[in-house]
Design brief:
This protein has helices at 29-62, 102-109, 117-128, and strands spanning 79-83, 112-116. By secondary structure, it is mainly alpha-helical.
Length: 137
């Protein structure tokens, strides 16, 4: 067997560092690490966006029928998911909490009713004034 000889004049194609000591490398360790981190960040961002879009589609699909009380259905952003039994609430259903797993999101949706902003505020106002029961509002 032949002995290992250093390859001459090999440089990182990104930064130009000498990489003659590396076998089969086209870039130095620093540039390889940076590229890996950039790829991981980009892949992670795309994966989160794909899941976010999927969950948003599920939630908006449930808003088709409109408010459970008055039937309002003109603007999806004016419709909110109201937890019927507050003790069962694990997290708020809003765009900011779209990082939850899809099955957990659907489980939480089953505990809610769809209300327009006005009806939702009226329910909470009735509860604040003691006109609703302790366990349901």
């Amino acid at each position: 067997m032949g002995s290992y000889t250093k390859v001459k004049d090999r440089f990182c194609y990104i930064c130009g560092k000498d990489i003659s000591h590396l076998i089969r490398a086209r870039r130095c360790e620093d540039c390889a690490k940076e590229l890996r981190n950039t790829y991981d960040r980009e892949y992670s961002r795309l994966y989160r966006k794909k899941n976010y879009d999927k969950k948003k589609k599920i939630m908006n699909g449930l808003k088709i029928n409109g408010c459970s009380i008055c039937g309002y259905d003109k603007c999806n952003r004016a419709l909110v998911f109201h937890h019927v039994i507050p003790k069962d609430k694990k997290f708020n259903l809003m765009i900011g909490n779209m990082d939850k797993r899809t099955d957990k999101l659907i489980d939480e949706l089953h505990k809610c009713m769809l209300l327009c902003s006005n009806c939702h505020r009226e329910i909470h106002d009735l509860d604040k004034n003691g006109m609703l029961g302790d366990d349901v509002y």
